[in-house]
Amino acid sequence: MIRNPIPWPNNAKCAVSISFDMDADSLIHISKPNDSFRRLYPISMGKYGPNIAIPRILDTYQKFGLKQSFFYTWMVYKRVSITN
Length: 84
Prior knowledge:
43% of the residues lie in helices and 0% in strands. It has three helices and no strands. The protein has helices at residues 26-31, 40-63, 74-79.
């Protein structure tokens, strides 16, 4: 046990971190640069994250008053407009 533990707000006993890996469709464009535009299945799967999942996550966090931050690659930023 720690002799002098740092006090947490509201006497909390722990903290929780939730992480999301959001590469979107960047991996298919990197691995198949010459014909990635023809690979609709992986592209549509990759676009789910930024277009559907992140707005849902942000709405849920806002509903419960939770703070969040996101990291995503420059390629994702250039290809997808994420707003909320």
